[in-house]
Please model this.
Amino acid sequence: MPSRHRPAGRVEDPARHPRRVAVLAWTLALLLPAGVGVALWTASGSGSGAAKARTALDLVVTSGAAVGDLYPGASGKVYLSVENPNPYAVTLTGGSVTGITSVTGSCTAADFTLGSGTVPSTAIAAGATASVVLDAALTMRSTAGNGCQGATVTVAATVTGTQS
Amino acid sequence: MARPTARTLAAVAAGALAVGGAAAPAAASWSGSWSGPGAARATTLPAVGTVDAVCAGGASVAVSWAAAAPATAYEVWRSADLGPWTLVRAADPATTFTDTAAGLVNVSVRWHVVASRNAWSAPASAASPSRVISTLGICL
Model:
């Protein structure tokens, strides 16, 4: 469409509007198929552009549905649910239990010892939530009494991972 | 519709180049560690299932049952005529016990088993079928 301030048919001087020319050049470069010869004015322009890296969002770790597998002298699993709110997949590479937060019944934290814990490599898709099991992460002492039967243990757990 | 600016076009062009993979960036991944609560749960020690009591010659009665994991030991208790239960074998890993039922004549004798593991103990099993030792010392 002709400019309101410019007579129709008048040729625009590219030197006066280097940014418009740059815009036109980019537009044509993007829209035209390769191999089509186009005669263009050449010009150069400079300016500032901006790009911003996305901030990685923290994975959300919550308690999973635990299965009763601890008994005196035995190591058990710790169950987690891990949500990945990022727009890219994350692979969990490790995990550990760092403490016991609470124990139900007459059982106490002193009835348990923390294990090293292992996590199988687990890929969590973008925006997905995965059930994660820390194997051998907790051991019930052989001296644990009857009050520990059926007890639920809440622990503080940490998982590590990397962008897939 | 707003006219595209040089900035937006530059951004689009840069994006097209990146999509086209003209210049693969160095492989660098974000990584981190995240914390939160986890849950573990202890099991419960189950009661022993069926307890059998079979005459084993003379006044002897063979009492047996199936193992009940994760129990590692079993106590055997006996009762005559539904009286009080008496411990006749302390905790032991064996799942059989032969009771001579000494001194118990013409009474209905039953047995039950209590499973244990360390300081844990399970509820008592149901009572076995009853046996009677005749005055002649024969299990019936």
Q: What stands out?
A: Confidence is low (pLDDT under 50) at residues 1-12, 21-38 of chain A. The CA atoms of residues 17 and 53 of chain A lie 32 Å apart. Residues 60-163 of chain A form a domain with the Immunoglobulin-like fold (CATH 2.60.40). Chain A has two domains: 13-49, 60-163.
